[in-house]
Amino acid sequence: EPEVTQTPSHQVTQMGQEVILRCVPISNHLYFYWYRQILGQKVEFLVSFYNNEISEKSEIFDDQFSVERPDGSNFTLKIRSTKLEDSAMYFCASKVSTGGFVNQPQHFGDGTRLSIL
Amino acid sequence: DAKTTQPPSMDCAEGRAANLPCNHSTISGNEYVYWYRQIHSQGPQYIIHGLKNNETNEMASLIITEDRKSSTLILPHATLRDTAVYYCIVSGNQFYFGTGTSLTVIP
Predict the structure, then answer these.
(1) What's the distance, Cα to Cα, between the start and end of chain B in Å?
(2) How does residue A99 score in pLDDT terms, banded at 50, 70 and 90?
(3) Residue A100 pLDDT class (50, 70, 90 cuts)
């Protein structure tokens, strides 16, 4: 069964450095998402992306964050200048687009654990 | 914010049915009810979803009340591998997760 894959599984970065988290969504999916989960807390929505642009974003997704689909397969999340509080699991998700896209489930990757030192 | 309310924890004996309730009294007419689970810190795993009719797949059954204000996820024969946090999500597009129900299946 097709899966969403995320790399790396664990990223350790110095505070203030830029980090790029990578995701390969399921191949026929057209809607892409990033979520994060701080240790012991809820999964939080960050951003949704469709047709090469952001469709919705949360308050968490400030100017330090950006997303990109640089080619036909990858979907990336960039944090420009990392802070200690950015330490979390980051999950990528994708969803197929059909005529009734609203009712399609999102499929999640297993996440990248980001640790900011 | 999450539009759902779930009990924080439940236990279920192995081999018995696990019935996980969810309240979503403010659900809109075009919003679906989705159920996911998360084992340890893995990514949320899709289980089932529905709009207003009851649904069944190889993993579970979903019972949605007629007024759509609540639903129940049923795992018909719980196994130890079903121990996880279960999330009920009401959504049109992006997901807002609540704190879910931590289900423990007991041998």
Answers:
(1) 35
(2) low
(3) low
Query: What contacts 24+ positions apart, CB below 8 Å, involve A53-60?
Result: A55/A31, A55/B93, A56/B93, A56/B94, A60/A36
Contact A24, A35 (CB under 8 A): no
Is the Cβ–Cβ distance between A103 and A2 less than 8 Å?
Answer: no
Classify residue B24 as exposed, middle or buried by CB count within 10 Å of its CB (0-12, 13-18, 19+): buried
Angstrom distance (rounded) from CA B2 to CA B4: 6
- Looking at residue A103, its pLDDT comes to 77
pLDDT tens track for B92-103: 778 999 999 999
The answer to whether the CB atoms of A110 and B43 lie below 8 A apart is yes
Is a pLDDT exceeding 90 seen at residue B70? yes
Helix (H, G, I), strand (E, B) or coil at A85: helix
Please determine, for residue B21, whether its predicted confidence score (pLDDT) is greater than 90: yes
Q: CB of A43 within 8 Å of any CB in chain B?
A: yes
Instruction: With CA atoms as reference, report the closest residue to A79 among A70, A95, A68, A71.
Output: A68
Binary contact (A102, B51; C-beta < 8 A):
no
User: Judging by DSSP bridges, how do beta strands B9-13 and B101-106 pair with one another?
Assistant: parallel
Contact (Cβ atoms closer than 8 angstroms) between residue A36 and residue A91: yes
Name which of B30, B41, B94 is nearest A33 (Cβ-Cβ).
Answer: B94
